Please model this.
Amino acid sequence: MSQANVEKIVGRLVTDEDFRRAFHADAERVVRDLAERGCELTRAEIATLVALDPLTLERFADSLDPRLQKASLRGPVPPAGNAGRHP
Model:
């Protein structure tokens, strides 16, 4: 059942801006929290999810029809390499 969970997580990453922002800030924590809440993932899937490139996710999200997006009121996701930095 873990493949279905990977698909749900990737889908959420490209449609939920707040989730994508949290993932961008600390991917390991987000994936660990999902696993602690019962989301079954193999070690390989966890490692692969944590290694996803935030910029690639953002580009894919930007290419989707906005009607599929869960928008955030917090402003844009910071560019890759700026995680945790504040203006």
